[in-house]
Specification:
118 residues, alpha+beta, Glutaredoxin, 6-stranded mixed sheet
Length: 118
């Protein structure tokens, strides 16, 4: 189940797509950040970072949280750790950030890659 992080909403998990995640989805969305965060003691903090990021970049990027099943069904993502943040532009991976990140680190990561895209 893919979870989209919606900036207008305080609750991270309000909009879900019950269908299986289709990697083709990211080709249609422009700039996309896919995140995989294992549900451990750091999950809530990292999910809050994504929620905060979605508010500051709501007109620039769409953010999706991959569930464990999505990762197993899509080995092409080559996710071997958590958290993993992958930035896509028109379906092509442009960058990857591994490990815990705060809002500033993710914003800088995205901004640096956006500058390369234009």
């Amino acid at each position: 189940m893919l979870i989209q992080i919606i900036p207008e909403n305080e609750n991270l998990f309000t909009h879900t797509d019950n269908a299986e995640f289709d990697p083709e989805t990211i080709k249609e969305k422009g700039i996309v950040l896919l995140a995989y965060i294992y549900r451990d003691s750091d999950f809530k903090q990292q999910a809050k970072v994504l929620n905060d990021l979605s508010k500051t970049m709501k007109n620039i990027i769409q953010i999706f949280l991959l569930e464990e099943d999505d990762v197993h069904r899509n080995p092409d993502f080559d996710i071997s750790g958590s958290p993993t943040f992958m930035l896509f532009y028109n379906g092509e991976e442009k960058g990857r950030l591994l490990g815990k990140a705060d809002t500033k680190a993710l914003t800088d990561f995205i901004s640096n890659h956006l500058l390369e895209m234009i």
